[in-house]
Amino acid sequence: MSEAQGTALRHAPSSLAHMQAVQQLSKLYGCEPTWESIQRYRIAAGFDKYTDICFKAAGIECILMDDLLVSSGKVAIPYNWHDKLTANKTRRIVRVETVAEKIAERMENADLRIFLQSFLKSLMDSARDPDVVGFKSVICYRTGLDISVTMREKLDSRAEAFLDYITNGKTTGNWRLASKPLNDMVTNLAVQISGECGKPIQFHTGLGDNDIRLVKSNPAYMQDLIEGYPKAKIVLLHSSYPFTREAGYLATVYDNVYLDCIPLDLND
Question: Could you tell me the pTM of the whole model?
């Protein structure tokens, strides 16, 4: 219902999204239209039951699941567990930053060429995997959507940034990739592989948690990248809100740009 965190969450119950959800879920569960009643129902029903109810009500036929939690080792439920909820098998969407982080974490030294070889091999293995239907980048959260077409640059220009990243990771244990030269490089490679294998690549755009820089989440920044990889099917997620007009414009003037939209029931 909200991307807020900490004390900002106290405003969530007054949001339109929260109020609408309370009305819809209370009808679905057959309980009083209060958040507390919904919480009590979910606890009493149990995870399997209320999940099945929600999936059937939404008419979901297939799940395309971002595998962030699978890659990070924090997953509570395997992605194929969800097969029982839908008519079709669950498919994976590979998050490219997570792939890069896991490879870097296993490296003994800061050899950028070895990193790139391993990263490309992992992406190509995913491209051949029938359970993988696409890739996803969250560079919007990390360094913003003003992505340089870095394949035109020399490798040496990013070696120092990679050394700093590996050194910091080994010192702090924090492997979150948030270095613009490296994030741009990883994203370019992922978009290139996406175009070659025909599997689309999604980009988080627009709204997010409070660690996102809202201005840099505007997909208009991606115009150079879109033009640089015309064979890649680029999907702008979350309707790019509040930059929906910019995203719609990109989807109309570029054949390789797609925009996800949530249909509204005007009678609800």
Answer: 0.85
